[in-house]
Amino acid sequence: MDSSLEFSSSLGSVSSLLTRCRTFKVLVIGDSGVGKTCLTHRLSAGEFPCRAEATIGVDFRERVLEIDGEKIKLQLWDTAGQERFRKSMVQHYYRNVHAVLFIYDVTCPASFIGLTSWIEECRQHCLGQDIPRFLVGNKSDLRDTSRTNSQVTQERATGFAKAHGMMFFETSAKDPPKKCTSGRRGEGQVLYQQDNVEDIVTAVAFSFQAPLLWNQLPAWIRETDTLSVFKIRLKTFLYDKAHSQGWIR
């Protein structure tokens, strides 16, 4: 096939993908009481619920946003943290999952320790490391930087996130900051990071963009053994296609 026709076909394929809304299943897990329901309310509707009760089974909430001209729908699965509410449905939770949010309460170290069991549950249900994972510390509005021994420090959380290949956020479903802030506070100059809820939503949505763009590249570019060869082939491909379209002379 002529290169210009091939590129036009690729553009048409990309265009059709960008005009439709893709749906992604995002699993929200963590111990009971960490604020999963309140956080998913904030992520989807931008508000804190007046009243939240223990989730029985699973609740669904959705958020549609546009990333680089493409509409993306995040289907948030707010799961029960109590085992007695999970037994009959746990297999259904993990079916066709695209991303996972691991939630803990920054004022409750036990909920942070419990994350290992949630990671193990993911492993048992065949969720590989290729599934985007995010670690979210909730209830940061209740954090007391002078009581580091009874709370989950951000140094500890960032270390955990790095060890498990997760992106780390800390926020408050009840009173999130208007923008991301970071620094050190308190007598011991404790690391203090506050993330806007929209930063979390955007990060999750962007994690789905890379596969789309990658799959539009020809196999002869994707199937390379070294980064240097990949860069050369990609540069050649982009130059040739831009030239064939008349964008450069």
UniProtKB/TrEMBL annotation:
It comes from the Eukaryota. The keyword GTP-binding applies. InterPro entries: P-loop_NTPase, Small_GTP-bd, Small_GTPase. Keywords: GTP-binding, Nucleotide-binding. One of its GO terms (molecular function) is GTPase activity. The keyword Cell wall biogenesis/degradation does not apply. Belongs to the small GTPase superfamily. Rab family. This is RAB33B, member RAS oncogene family. It comes from Amphilophus citrinellus.
